[in-house]
Amino acid sequence: MADVRPFRGVRYSAPALSPVLCPPYDVIGPELAAALRRRRSNAVFLELPEGEPPAKYERAAAQWRRWTVDGTLSREPRPAFYAVEERYRLGGPKIRVRRGILAALGATPEAAKAIVPHERTLAKPKVDRLKMLDAVGVNISPIFGVFADPSGAARRAIAAAMRGRPDAAGRSHARVDYRLWVVDEPGLVAAIRKALAPRSILIADGHHRYLVSRDHHARTKGPGTDAVLAYLVPDEDAGLVVLPTHRVVKTSLMKRAGELAPLKKVRSLRELERLVAKSRNPYAFGLIERGFHLGEPKPDGCVSGLAVEWLGKRLLAGVMPDQMSYTPDAAIAAKRAAAGGAAVLVKPFGVAQVRRAAKAVGLLPQKSTFFYPKIATGLAFRPLDAE
User: What is the pTM of this model?
Assistant: First the structure.
């Protein structure tokens, strides 16, 4: 049974979201961080403060105290869910719409039985987020989870919560338009809880933060540590998009790739993307090194049906984490490869395939998926005593 609850969130007092939203900490590069810090009340000052440890954690905690005292942030009078609508474009003029809710998601050992992770984690980000949680005592950014809604009950409840004028709205740096509604009407709260209770939650993004919340609760048993801020979206939502995360390495892969799979040279990046996507081989990949090459390997013991498993076990086995970078943009991958090394294009897949892969093999390599767009930080915060 999924432990999904309303909570007494803390939100920006002003309804305009454009000046305050930022992405999750792990996708904020130096240039973007500098741009966001020019906005005096941006959530980046909590999510990714300047400086090195421990000063940056102390700086975030001080900023939180300052904003809650001076009225920049204010707390809801009662527990609520937060219905969130995102409107965005992806590679064309079509406007896509994704709808979900912000909620408190259980992080106890019992609650974790309904949580399905699908990616391995790294020690360094967990240490960083645990120290931030210890210092500030707040879930600053939400993890992102998806759940099956075959009857449509959750989607109907979320749609009902979005009637009327939103409580906040604005556009993120990624040109995603957000609208947010506070959902505290008892009937709607009950309908959302009932629809989600029998479901399992697949973690789409935020594996490190979920594990950190579990560790923090196990260590402290403090008030409110038994849950984590989560953004939850139905699998069936028309705006739910998962992109493949391409790999870029600083070394040559040509020799090893040729030993593992026949390589077919193609003329362009666009053609390579098309061939990888249409290949009937679920482990097909594109190699960008001294040109463009399509690889179609034999599964060789892999059972997930996702190319990232084969790549992690075979082609990229032994590549150290600091020698690899990731991007969902094939053009960016090709540009990085041209500067030295190689890029590997990953075959696209859907949410159902991720679920099957997690069931078949457990945890996949880090950065196996990119659920687009990333949910913004700054919509609502969850202090650990938020219930």
Answer: 0.91
